[in-house]
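Quick question: what would this complex look like in 3D?
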Amino acid sequence: MIEIAGVGKQFVLHNQGGAVLPVMTGASLSVGAGECVALVGASGAGKSTLMRMIWGNYRCEEGSINVAGTELCRAAPRVVLELRRSTLGYVSQFLRVIPRIPTRQIVAEPLLAQGIDEDAALAKAEGLLERLNLPQRLWSLSPTTFSGGEQQRVNIARGFIQDWPVMLLDEPTASLDAANRAVVLDLILEAKARGAAILGIFHDADARAAVCDREVDVTGFTPTKEAA
Ligand SMILES: Nc1ncnc2c1ncn2[C@@H]1O[C@H](COP(=O)(O)OP(=O)(O)OP(=O)(O)O)[C@@H](O)[C@H]1O
């Protein structure tokens, strides 16, 4: 479902005299249906950069990133947007808070965008918020003032409300207590059981051990000094 081959990335720092920073070369990995693969490697090794290239926030200029049959390297923006609408889910580390929109609406939004009936979408949102132990009195409020962990649970509920065939997870258990961490790990296992292909960054080794089938160390994709 995710096939990455020969991906390279360099940043050009236009505001710093055009300095060129090669950060990745020859990155290759694959994630099959029902599999969860963890990206590991030292801080700065390129885990987030690779995730952002798959999500399409960083442009991929070299190699191939194929997600469920769609080539994303050098793809037109509309191709990326269509994949995000239909196939690819992303649970980022932080919730993008939209003032004045109630929590249950934010969580239900991916289903509403698919044209799912509003009552059914809101009911599913509430079910997830309940599972993630977000107090009911908060469901009708905007998450602007929520704690870090509360915002993260809203973000996770939103990310898991749709049965995405492919999911990217960026630190989904960071800043959660043990009970909520266990709920998130269950959600990941359930997604795998229905056949989702999942690629994630998990700094928590126990979380990795609980849900991941394999690890890919991105340090292996760091350009050597000579090549740079
Ligand atoms: N937009 C950018 N412009 C310039 N350099 C960048 C940019 N994004 C990332 N980098 C550089 O790319 C390298 C890889 O960073 P990245 O954030 O992918 O690492 P990481 O493995 O996710 O690290 P961490 O575990 O600390 O989050 C770093 O040297 C970083 O400075």
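Answer marked as accepted. The mean pLDDT is 92.
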